[in-house]
Amino acid sequence: MNTPDIFVATCDLAGQVRGRGAPYEAYDSVLRSGLGWVPANLGISAFGGIPPGSAFGSTGDLRLIPDEATEITIPSDSYGTGLKLLLADQAQPDGSEWDCCPRTFLRKAVNDFREQTGLRIIATFEHEFVLEGLPPSAPFSLRRHRDADPFGTDLLRLLTNCGLAPENWLPEFGANQFEITVEPSDPLTAADRAVLLRELVRDLAIRRGLRASFAPLQEPNGTGTGVHVHISLVDDGGNPVMFDASRPGRLSEVGSRFGAGILRHAEALTAWTAPSPVSFLRLSPNRWSVGGIFLAERNREALLRICPTSSAGGSAPDHQFNLEYRAADATANPWLTLGVLLRAGLAGIVGGDEYPAPEIIPEDAGPAELMDVPLLPRTLDDALLALEKDQTARSWFHPDLLTTFLAVKRYEVAQLASLNDAARIKAVADVY
């Protein structure tokens, strides 16, 4: 039996998983001291090249320090070799923190949230993707579910064996579109699982003669493909604190303040959570993505949706109750996506009167009630400008991280600027 080699990985500002491999015999050494890395690698465009304006050039060195808790094994089979994959922090050569590491950014956001509120976050990422290579089939149909086998069955087994705790695997509305969900967990685990899940899906699809795409769109008028981030709050005893049956929408005061922070900084947040040149073609009204910056009960056009709860089987609502952030996609880095949501939510909780309680739009609201809700930025360029103008959001980042992010995203926009919408969508779909 062949022992699989190892790969130590990080996820960069383009949402790409990059890293270095080593023979299994070096496993102990790699765990202890990591592998060499370069600061400029953080800022590689999704379409190739290092943008002008990046804070990082040809100098400097880092280490990829793997977290053994993230280790998964992709088993060998008749389609390909196996691999041990570990996620890593990007650290200084002496092992100390590097301020621009996305995984470290999330860890610090979690720690600050805990210290300033006394609360813990529970989160999960819900992923949609398109599986190319299947025959046409009806939305949500058993036929599509069966057409996807053995991929679907193998995916559930693979995710389970890798500790990702899958919950649901289902055919979705769009052509050959599917959704996979995993159990809620602490924030770092949730984001780690999101990074790993995307790569496991892509890898397995290739092994089964298919191709998986997480791109926001496959064609200009097609169904969008997104990532929904579910967040709830608990106290030290694990008791949920976001549910209050006596309040509008059953959303507690602390939950309302958390939501207020996300709504206040929404335009800046979307630069991080939907950061491709075509992401905002999906985020528009009447597409079941995000029709505006508002908080609503069970409305899939809301930026923040109060999710329904079930009483079937005697289930209690408080442990199910959560907020769903809907303006994300898989072109974003999961560590940064969740990190900025926690930073914004924390700002709302501790910000007092600067963050008034948001109106909760009821489920049965008509078009007239939604007419005046503010819209998201229309383009990534607009979102980047909003980020630059939002002094609170800017303060969450080391200047080098912010500078490089802005440079990368504007470079990616420029790289596709000469293309029409269909060609830009294809260019993004080819990468993601």
Q: Could you walk me through the main structural features you see in this protein, from its secondary elements to its overall organization?
A:
The chain has 432 residues and is α+β, with helices and mostly antiparallel strands. The chain folds into two domains: 5-98, Ubiquitin-like (UB roll); 105-431, Glutamine synthetase/guanido kinase, catalytic domain (Creatine Kinase, Chain A, domain 2). The chain has 14 helices and 15 strands. It has helices spanning 27-33, 102-117, 142-147, 151-161, 187-207, 253-264, 266-273, 279-282, 334-350, 367-370, 380-389, 391-394, 399-415, 421-431; strands spanning 5-11, 17-22, 35-37, 62-66, 72-74, 83-91, 120-132, 166-171, 177-182, 211-213, 227-234, 292-297, 302-306, 323-328, 360-361. The strands form two sheets. Strands 7, 8, 9, 10, 11, 12, 13, 14 and 15 form a nine-stranded mixed β-sheet that branches. Strands 1, 2, 3, 4, 5 and 6 form a six-stranded mixed β-sheet that branches. Strand 8 (166-171) and strand 9 (177-182) form a beta hairpin. Helix 7 (266-273) crosses helix 11 (380-389). The longest helix is centred in the middle third of the chain and has 21 residues, at 187-207.
Secondary structure layout plus pairing:
Blueprint: E1 5-11, E2 17-22, H1 27-33, E3 35-37, E4 62-66, E5 72-74, E6 83-91, H2 102-117, E7 120-132, H3 142-147, H4 151-161, E8 166-171, E9 177-182, H5 187-207, E10 211-213, E11 227-234, H6 253-264, H7 266-273, H8 279-282, E12 292-297, E13 302-306, E14 323-328, H9 334-350, E15 360-361, H10 367-370, H11 380-389, H12 391-394, H13 399-415, H14 421-431
Parallel strand pairs: 1-6, 12-13, 12-15
Antiparallel strand pairs: 1-2, 3-4, 4-6, 5-6, 7-9, 7-10, 7-11, 8-9, 11-14, 13-14
Helix pairs in contact: 2-9, 4-5, 5-9, 6-9, 7-11
